[in-house]
Every structure is written in structure tokens, then in C-alpha cells.
Amino acid sequence: MPGLRWALIIAGGYAAGAVGSVLGVPSPYLLASLLVGAVLALSGRVRDRLPGPANRTSQALVGALMGSHLTSSALMAAAPSALPLTAVTAATIGQSVAIASFLARKGRISRPSAVLGMMPGGSSGIVTCADELKADVRLVAFNQYLRVGLVATTAPLLAHWMAGGSSSGPAGDGPGSWPGPGLFHLVAGPDQPTGLLTLAAVSVAGVLAGRRLRLPTPALIGPMLIALVATMSGVIPAFAPAGILQDVVFVLVGMDVGVRFTRDTLRRVRGLLPSILAAMTAVCLGCAGMAWIFARATGTPLMDAYLATTPPEGSTRSSPRRSPPTGMSPWSRPCRACGSWS
What we know:
Layout: H1 2-23, H2 28-42, H3 52-67, H4 72-78, H5 82-106, H6 111-118, H7 123-130, H8 137-162, H9 192-212, H10 218-233, H11 243-258, H12 263-298, H13 302-309, H14 313-317
């Protein structure tokens, strides 16, 4: 009974993610389920991919989640800094692509895999669409979440230093607490039935539109664009996946990547590790430089600019109930390409 077998595997990934969340692991449901899937694949207990319908559903829901983050109020808050913000975002992407291209030439990595692996921010979306963009999704996931781990461990220390030792975030929001809404709170907003129906409509319409327009990764980008339009309209009730539904979506994404790992993949990654770490260091230093430029140009506190341009997106996206650091400027929300807090 493959359906029951996959249900048990996904439940195991979710349980591992819940433990990771309590322990304060960045991107707990993604990383934990990825590790569970990799262990099962490497041990020979799982030899096939995540079922197609589950994979496509997770892509559509991730797209809807991504599109729901850009609101009219966030754009209005960011308007005074729109020009320097756009310039810094473009420069951040440009320097990441340049470093990835150098890595592809020197590290025996395909250009799509290197670019997607080094791209700051949007970890979940990048991993989700890597397969359809002809990249090695295992290598992309390894690069993305190794970067997430490195940044998640260093950014709080640097932010603490920049803030002069002041703490951020409310009490009880860190390791050892069970964050998030109740079990039956599946979408953002108080009206759960309407929100779920809206989410289903946005996802289905987005997939159909993506296929009709022949977009790359239509199951991801189509719902993202429809969700963006729906959110910007301001008349659609809140529909973004939340709570247990969002966590399950990230479990599916992580599991789909994890079960693809083989021993050959691990041997290859081990040989590429020095080059990958050097490229990651260059990307993070470049993002810090962009933060300094942005802070000088706009008068934004350096800590705010650093947290907005440093790319720990995987850790913040899949843990949306965490609060941003105290004093974060309102423009940080729309800076998705930089991997900002949201």
C-alpha cells in the first residue's frame, strides 16, 4: 500500500520537524524532513520519488504562500526607500550570479545548479523549482540549506553585536516553545473555510494559468502570480497557508529532495565542499557590503539593513511565527530577493 507507506514517511518527517522546531533548528520542517528522506534513501528503504500529485500540490501551495507576502501596506512603507532598495536588491542578485558562474567554471557544477544554489533568499521556492529548471535539485538543496545554517548561526550574533547587546523578539519565541496557531488554523486570517476555499481557487487557477502561459515551473510561478494579484487587490480574504498546513507543505518539499540523495551524491558534494564554502562566504560578504551601502544611503540602522540583505530566508520563511528583530524598518518585508524577515 504505497499511499499508506508515504503517509507514514511524511508523518515521520513532520514529527522530526516538530522536534527541530522546539530545539530552534532553522527551517525545521524542511531540513528535518530532508534529512529523514535522505536517511531512508541512503539506507535503501525508499527507492522512489514523492508521488506526483503531492509534489505538484506542495509547489502550488508554496507559490501561493510566496505571492501572499507582498501587500499594499508593505509597498507603501517601502516607497520612500524604493530606489536604493531596488538597486541593492538588483546588485545582490547580480553579485550572486557572478559568484555562481565562477563556481560553475571552477567547481565542476552545472551553471543552473550553481546559480540556484547561491541565490540568496527564497530557499523553499528555489528548491521547489530546481528540478524543472534542469538543475541538480540535491546540490541546490545542499547549497541553499548549508547557507541557511551558516547565516542562521552567525546573523543573530552579528545583530546582537551591532545592536550593542540588546535582545530582540518576544519571550517564549525561541527554542523550547511550541510556536504557531492551533491545530485547525490552516490559513492566515480568522475565516478558515473561506480562506481554504480561496487558497484552493488561487492554487488551481494559478497552475492552469501557468500552463496556459507556458511559464517555467507553472505549478509554482502561476499560483505565486495569482496570489500576488489577489493580495494586492485587498478584497480577497487572507488565504496564505499557515500553521500545520504550512508545515506539512514544507515537509513535502523537504522529503521530495531528501529521497533523491544517493551515496554518489554525497561523495560528489564532499569533493565540492571547499569551493562551495568559499562561494558562500563571498555571497554573504557581498550582502553585508550591500547592507552598509544601503544604510549609508538611506539612514537606516546598520543592523536593520544587515538583517534585510543577509539571506537567511529559509529559516524565516518556514518559521513565519517568529517575530522580526526589534526596530526592524517596515521596508524589510518586501525585500524578498534579499531574504528579508517577513
